[in-house]
Description:
Elements: H1 3-7, E1 16-17, E2 20-21, E3 23-24, H2 35-48, H3 58-77, E4 86-89, H4 92-107, E5 113-116, H5 126-135, E6 138-141, H6 152-158, E7 163-169, H7 181-190, E8 194-198, H8 210-213, E9 217-221, E10 232-236, H9 238-243, E11 254-257, E12 262-264, H10 278-294, H11 296-315, E13 320-323, E14 334-339, H12 344-353, E15 356-357, E16 359-361, H13 366-372, E17 377-381, H14 388-409
Parallel strand pairs: 3-15, 5-6, 5-7, 7-8, 8-9
Antiparallel strand pairs: 1-2, 4-10, 9-10, 11-12, 13-14, 14-17, 16-17
Helix pairs in contact: 2-10, 3-10, 4-5, 11-14
Amino acid sequence: xxxxxxxxxxxxxxxxxxxxxxxxxxxxxxxxxxxxxxxxxxxxxxxxxxxxxxxxxxxxxxxxxxxxxxxxxxxxxxxxxxxxxxxxxxxxxxxxxxxxxxxxxxxxxxxxxxxxxxxxxxxxxxxxxxxxxxxxxxxxxxxxxxxxxxxxxxxxxxxxxxxxxxxxxxxxxxxxxxxxxxxxxxxxxxxxxxxxxxxxxxxxxxxxxxxxxxxxxxxxxxxxxxxxxxxxxxxxxxxxxxxxxxxxxxxxxxxxxxxxxxxxxxxxxxxxxxxxxxxxxxxxxxxxxxxxxxxxxxxxxxxxxxxxxxxxxxxxxxxxxxxxxxxxxxxxxxxxxxxxxxxxxxxxxxxxxxxxxxxxxxxxxxxxxxxxxxxxxxxxxxxxxxxxxxxxxxxxxxxxxxxxxxxxxx
Length: 410
Ligand code: PMP
């Protein structure tokens, strides 16, 4: 994989920010888009746009074909047994809410348990809190180790005969921890619980095979994997999708509508009420083609190498605290850190002045920030267009920030 060649496909990277060449290290928040994705959207709107699944005219058929082909490509990308198990949503947040509504609220009762980790993104936490409140189920948390990993024995000790759902990020957006989902799914299944995986940070960066993971649901977002904003995916096992009620009711998702009752289409269309996100799905398919051409093993190895290099570079700077597992094999393509006791927003502002874009804040993981005993952290995240030179610039900018604040704080 040649990141320098890949960069040529990303027009946005070729610009100056505050007088410096842009160093984009915020792909975990949202990745940039290659020309191929931008071109797929332009081509669709210029030649094929129409509503899908209704018009009996040529554009209607073309748009429908492209939309359903996108579903097939996404299904192949995550090794789903069939395209019908891929539901297009607005993103990870909507996908997880659909499971919390359609599965948890429908099937849980008082005394049932939902098992989570305290490191979850709010999108994989708040919907379960709400489902627990609505059904009388309770939430239980698997304890985190100091380095942000979880131990399988703690998973086994937390999951009980009352557990109905285990929900967890495949890769933590703050600590970068890669969780052993298959082993955890086996623990969940042994007590008859389902395994819900937040794949927002894994599907863009690792080869993901839903059958090998044996997860019951997988949620992810297009915009973090080179696709447009506003498109995401919910994958589910067929038996659950068939048993679940739709979340949204209206046009497109119905079979027969009478004055006092209606019936629904089959999965996945019953979950896609209203005009679907047609262009978004087509853009996501172009992103999937792009990633497939490069190969997800190559993407994973590249991101991993950069994260290791960044970890080593930042570790050498006095006054920098790094969070998450030290063992690179347990870490995805990001490094989260703080500089002295300075608020991460201030660090990020100094880095921005050097053209380096990172994320700073609580990363939608307030409970985890409390465990780490910080109000915020800085996060540099890497993708296929980043190079070691980007990381050298990050390290240099962090040194500049440290010296600036050391001076300012006396
Ligand atoms: N889960 C994780 C682990 C994430 O990193 C994110 C995005 N920051 C989300 C969920 C939510 O994704 P979206 O905002 O695209 O719905």
